[in-house]
Design brief:
heterodimer; A: alpha/beta; 15 strands; B: 3 helices
Chain lengths: ~450, ~100
């Protein structure tokens, strides 16, 4: 076998499968073996769809001449995506009693149309209300760089599975940072596209007005391949924009030429660990960035996102709280009950602020093409750690690992999180761009990768 | 800050639960004996208990501290947003389309 699917990128696997150097069946066999060997420790998978994957690989091998962009690429999805034949858990015990999904989520269908092969569903924080990757029912997903540490969440299995070499590509969801936080703590590239860019049809929601879906991978090129395969309008998702597919893969080679970049100041330079500081500064230096820019009222934006999340999340789960309160993770239950008690007047204030804030931030993109900010305030905390130090104050990990991601997803801006391979643990930097300009963020990420600044580090054996 | 929050919660709890004052009977209220002065209850605890009843949400006594901590954070952050003055004409972010 000419390629090791546990270290190869999605692009390399697809090229080898399309060239006939390896069969999709061999790739899937090796992938399933890696999952069997490594996942008992990493705890990223909640279901492995081995039979389905093997059947799909054989079918793909029979039609090899089709030359698909993701031919034979194994991938896995956060278990809030519908997978035909599985109950959509969304990290919960309660959803185990749901009927098995009758059809895959649309994004799974689109990736498989491009030749990718689903190999399973991934662990996540309960109902996505989490930044840790811990799960009281399934156990914590573990960080491949140090298995005593968190993956970050809520797309914890999506981070651990890719960083651990189980799959080259995964899908996660990001309401307040749940792709970017695990990307940062696991040392991966993660794309949270513009709100409304990728359809969420047939996935379990959390906060409808903030929910995004997107990919995690070990290279920018893989992000772009997956993103291009998943774009396109979808009437099944009320928030999905009616925009044509705008392929980004052919644009990556333009890199950062002609782009103006600034570093987010103020709020985004407060409370950072030395590692987070170093990561942003290293990226800024590599790009020749020498200007700061103030994202106005970012602390209030984070507060407003927090309040809307609490309220909308509680609304989603109100009946489940009444009927099955004892079956929730207590930490999630208590947050949801508290969210149900936030007066509607205050939630509406947050929605009014949201529009004002969006307008002010969009003005910044008249001056710059991209803004750099930390993805997390620190590297991966220990599993079980309840608090960490932020700006001289001990604050809960579960609610605060996303303080730098929340003000950005709050107004749906696209972001690529890029990994800095610091020792002993990686950490991520956000590349934030204007709505619908994922191409700009991906080009900068690609440039940083070409310079050797951003790279997904290989975990210890 | 704590005093501000306390007064806000008193109002909020009453509004959220639809609580009304005890209807007047037209009689002079009985004066409480001086010796039965009760310790002041925490307004946020009262609000949580009342809201849980009004919303038919379960509430075990041992859950109260964590719910209170979470609600306190929600209200503190909501206050940070609410105190930011914007014109009355400002539209919320979601816009309904007919």
């Amino acid at each position: 076998m000419g390629i090791d699917p546990t270290s190869a990128t999605a692009g390399e696997i697809a090229r080898a499968v399309n060239a006939g150097e390896v069969s999709a069946a061999e790739v899937i066999e090796q992938t399933l073996l890696a999952i069997r060997m490594r996942d008992p420790v990493l705890n990223c998978f909640t279901d492995v769809t081995a039979e389905r994957a093997a059947a799909r690989a054989q079918a793909l091998d029979r039609e090899r001449a089709s030359n698909k962009p993701l031919a034979g690429v194994p991938f896995a999805v956060k278990n809030l995506f519908d997978v035909k034949g599985l109950a959509t858990l969304a990290g919960s015990k309660i959803n185990r009693s749901r009927e098995p999904a009758s059809r895959d989520a649309v994004l799974i269908e689109r990736l498989e149309s491009a030749g990718a092969i689903l190999v399973g569903a991934l662990n996540m924080g309960e109902y996505a209300y989490d930044f840790t990757g811990e799960n009281i029912h399934a156990g914590p997903s573990r960080n491949p760089h140090d298995v005593t540490r968190m993956t970050g969440g809520s797309s914890g299995g999506s981070g651990g599975a890719v960083a651990g070499g189980l799959v080259p590509l995964s899908l996660g969801s990001d309401t307040n940072g749940s792709i970017r936080v695990p990307a940062s703590l696991c040392g991966l590239f993660g794309l949270k596209p513009t709100y409304g860019r990728l359809t969420r049809a047939r996935t379990f929601p959390f906060v409808a007005s903030l929910d995004h879906l997107g990919p995690l991978s070990r290279t920018t090129h893989d992000l772009a391949l997956a993103y291009d395969a998943m774009q396109g309008p979808d009437p099944e998702d009320a928030a999905c924009a009616n925009r044509p597919i705008e392929p980004v893969t052919p644009l990556l080679a333009r890199a950062a030429d002609g782009l103006t970049v600034a570093v987010a100041g103020g709020y985004f330079r407060k409370g950072l660990s030395p590692e987070a500081f170093a990561a942003v500064d290293r990226v800024a230096a590599a790009l020749g960035v020498n200007r700061d820019i103030e994202i106005p009222e970012a602390a209030r934006a984070r507060a407003a996102a927090y309040v809307i999340t609490a309220s909308e999340g509680a609304a989603l789960h109100l009946d489940r709280l009444r009927a099955h309160a004892a079956d929730f993770d207590p930490a999630v239950r208590d947050r949801l009950i508290a969210g149900a008690m936030v007066p509607a007047a205050l939630v509406n204030k947050a929605q009014i602020f949201r529009r004002w804030y969006r307008a002010r931030v969009l003005e910044l993109f008249d001056k710059v093409d991209a803004i750099l900010a930390p993805a997390t305030p620190c590297t991966a905390p220990a599993i079980g750690q309840k608090t960490f130090w932020l700006d001289g104050e001990a604050v809960p990990v579960r609610a605060n690992l996303g303080i730098y991601t929340q003000p950005i997803s709050f107004i749906g801006l696209p972001v690529v999180a890029v990994p800095l391979p610091l020792t002993p643990l990686p950490i991520g930097v956000q590349i934030i761009v204007a709505p619908w300009r994922e191409d700009v963020a991906l080009r900068i990420a690609y440039a940083l990768e070409q310079m050797g600044i951003a790279t997904a580090p290989t975990p210890p054996a | 800050m704590a005093r501000t929050r306390k007064s806000r919660l008193k109002t909020t709890a009453a509004q959220a639960t639809g609580a009304r004052e005890t209807p007047s009977t037209g009689r002079k209220p009985a004066r409480k004996p001086k010796s039965t002065k009760e310790p002041a209850s925490d307004p946020l605890d009262d609000f949580i208990r009342s809201a849980a009843r009004a919303l038919a949400l379960p509430l075990e006594p041992q859950w109260l501290p964590a719910i209170k901590a979470n609600l306190d954070t929600n209200l503190r952050l909501a206050a940070l947003v609410a105190e930011f003055a914007l014109p009355d004409e400002s539209e919320p972010a979601p816009v309904f389309t007919a």
